Automatic annotation (TrEMBL):
This is Prostaglandin-H2 D-isomerase. One of its GO terms (molecular function) is prostaglandin-D synthase activity. Gene3D superfamilies: 2.40.128.20. InterPro entries: Calycin, Lipocalin, Lipocalin_CS, Lipocln_cytosolic_FA-bd_dom. It comes from Eudromia elegans. GO terms for cellular component: extracellular space; Golgi apparatus; nuclear membrane; perinuclear region of cytoplasm; rough endoplasmic reticulum.
C-alpha cells in the first residue's frame, strides 16, 4: 500500500513538473488581429541575461506585422543608454496557429513561441521556451495596446509566470519611459 501511494505521488509530481512550462496556445488564434503596435508591459524570465539586464530594462514598443507567407515580423524599439535601439525578428509559423519558432543567429538559440491568451484589443500573454547549449529557459511577455493595464491583467501575468516555474524575482513589470515609442520617432 505504501509503495503504491509513493508511486502514485511520484507520478503526480512528474505530471506536475511536465505540465509546468508547457504553455497552451490561444484557441482560434487570429493572426491578422494580433498584428499592430504593442507595448511590453511585463517580462519574466529565468535566463541569465534577464537577471543581468533586469535593473536596466524599461517598457518598449513592439510592432507585429504579417509576412506574405504567414510568418510574423516582430520589431521592438527600446531605450538603451541615451538612444533608442531597434531589433527585428522573424517568427516562423508552425502547424499550430498561434505558435511560432525563431532561431537566433547571434546567440545560437532556438525559441518556441506561443501566444497563450489575448483579446487582441487590450492585452496578449506570450510564452517562450528557449533552448541553447543543451539548456532551456523560460520567458513570458505581457503586451498591451496601451501603456497601462488593469491590476487584474498584471496579476494574471504574474500568476501565469509562476505556473511556468518562474519565481517572484524572475518577474518584472517594466517601468514606463517617454523614449523609444514608435509614434515619437
Amino acid at each position: 500500500m505504501q509503495a503504491t501511494l509513493l508511486s502514485f505521488l511520484g507520478l503526480a509530481l512528474l505530471g506536475a513538473l511536465h505540465a509546468q512550462g508547457d504553455a497552451p496556445v490561444q484557441a482560434d488564434f487570429q493572426e491578422e488581429r494580433f498584428t499592430g503596435t504593442w507595448y511590453s508591459i511585463g517580462l519574466a524570465s529565468n535566463s541569465n541575461w534577464f537577471k543581468d539586464k533586469k535593473p536596466l530594462m524599461k517598457m518598449c514598443t513592439t510592432v507585429v506585422s504579417a509576412t506574405a507567407d504567414g510568418n510574423l515580423e516582430v520589431t521592438s524599439t527600446y531605450p538603451k543608454a541615451d538612444r533608442c535601439e531597434t531589433k527585428s525578428s522573424l517568427y516562423m509559423k508552425t502547424e499550430q496557429p498561434g505558435r511560432f519558432s525563431y532561431s537566433s543567429p547571434r546567440w545560437g538559440s532556438k525559441h518556441d513561441i506561443r501566444v497563450v491568451e489575448t483579446n487582441y484589443e487590450e492585452y496578449a500573454l506570450v510564452a517562450t521556451r528557449i533552448a541553447k547549449n543543451g539548456g532551456t529557459s523560460t520567458m513570458v511577455l505581457l503586451y498591451s495596446r496601451t501603456k497601462e493595464l488593469s491590476p487584474e491583467r498584471l496579476e494574471r501575468f504574474t500568476q501565469f509566470s509562476k505556473e511556468q516555474g518562474l519565481a517572484d524575482e524572475d518577474i518584472l513589470i517594466l517601468p514606463k519611459t517617454g523614449k523609444s515609442t514608435r509614434e515619437e520617432q
